[in-house]
From TrEMBL:
<protein>
    <submittedName>
        <fullName>Polyprenol monophosphomannose synthase</fullName>
    </submittedName>
</protein>
<keyword id="KW-0328">Glycosyltransferase</keyword>
<dbReference type="InterPro" id="IPR039528">
    <property type="entry name" value="DPM1-like"/>
</dbReference>
<dbReference type="GO" id="GO:0004582">
    <property type="term" value="F:dolichyl-phosphate beta-D-mannosyltransferase activity"/>
</dbReference>
<dbReference type="InterPro" id="IPR029044">
    <property type="entry name" value="Nucleotide-diphossugar_trans"/>
</dbReference>
<dbReference type="Pfam" id="PF00535">
    <property type="entry name" value="Glycos_transf_2"/>
</dbReference>
<dbReference type="InterPro" id="IPR001173">
    <property type="entry name" value="Glyco_trans_2-like"/>
</dbReference>
<keyword id="KW-0808">Transferase</keyword>
<dbReference type="GO" id="GO:0009247">
    <property type="term" value="P:glycolipid biosynthetic process"/>
</dbReference>
<feature type="domain" description="Glycosyltransferase 2-like">
    <location>
        <begin position="6"/>
        <end position="174"/>
    </location>
</feature>
<dbReference type="GO" id="GO:0016020">
    <property type="term" value="C:membrane"/>
</dbReference>
<comment type="similarity">
    <text>Belongs to the glycosyltransferase 2 family.</text>
</comment>
């Protein structure tokens, strides 16, 4: 039987974490969950540890890091853990229900039946499927993906998407120690490297719903990293140094 893991990076997600774990556990497919927490001041990691200790949840795992170190490094640590523990399919997912747990099932099936090496839960493959975002933020996100496509030639409509599934062969082929970006640029970098390595990337249409609890981690430094990081990625690819 294949093994599949959902990696959820967290920082101050105490209001959401137990509910998202429960929602994933109720799916008909057996998904394991790895929470990578950056020592959340609100005690997110304590909630996860309590669930592990009191509920005998063998599907649930936890890594607690010493400080807030960024989305990208959290996922890299999670990817390495997944490979070390021999998972066949690995998913990225937010804790705040902006990504619907039910969408894990069709995304898993695409990977399992080899219809994709990388599957993206895409907001923009069929119009604009975003709920509860202000128009300014929708426009910024949509234009960012257009910008990435123009600069890099990456044939993806939602390159900054954070709802992504990988076959383990993709993560094995990517040199994870050379993935350097930490914010949205990390999402672009992973997709661009996979594309450069010749893997089949498919977008699956999803509806993205903005969080109702907790606070967004978006800030200007993440935005600027993405803007300049895209140019850096393209320049590196010209010299054969993408990964």
């Amino acid at each position: 039987m294949p093994k599949q893991l959902v990696i959820i990076p967290t920082y101050n997600e105490a209001e959401n974490i137990e509910a998202i774990i429960q929602a994933i556990s109720l799916l008909i497919q057996d998904f394991h969950v790895l929470v990578v927490d950056d020592f959340s001041p609100d005690g997110t990691y304590k909630i996860v540890q309590r669930l592990i200790d009191t509920s005998n949840q063998s599907f649930l795992h936890l890594i607690v890091r010493k400080q807030k170190s960024g989305l990208g490094t959290a996922y890299i640590e999670g990817f390495k853990w997944a490979l070390a523990n021999d998972y066949d399919f690995v998913f990225e997912m937010d804790a705040d229900f902006s990504h619907a747990p039910k969408d894990l099932l069709p995304m898993f099936n695409m990977l399992h039946h080899k219809k994709a090496d990388v599957v993206i839960g895409s907001r923009y493959v069929k119009g604009v499927n975003v709920v509860n975002w202000p128009m300014k933020r929708i426009l910024m996100s949509w234009l960012a993906s257009k910008y990435v496509k123009f600069i890099t030639g990456l044939p993806i409509n939602d390159s900054t998407a954070g709802f992504v599934g990988f076959r383990k062969e993709v993560l094995q082929k990517i040199n994870l120690d050379k993935v350097k970006f930490v914010g949205y640029a990390f999402q672009i970098e992973m997709k661009f490297i996979a594309y450069q390595l010749g893997f089949n990337i498919v977008e699956f249409p999803v509806v993205f719903t903005d969080r109702s609890k907790g606070k967004s981690k978006m800030n200007t430094s993440i935005i600027w990293e993405a803007i300049f990081g895209v140019v850096k990625l393209k320049l590196k690819s010209w010299f054969g140094k993408i990964n």
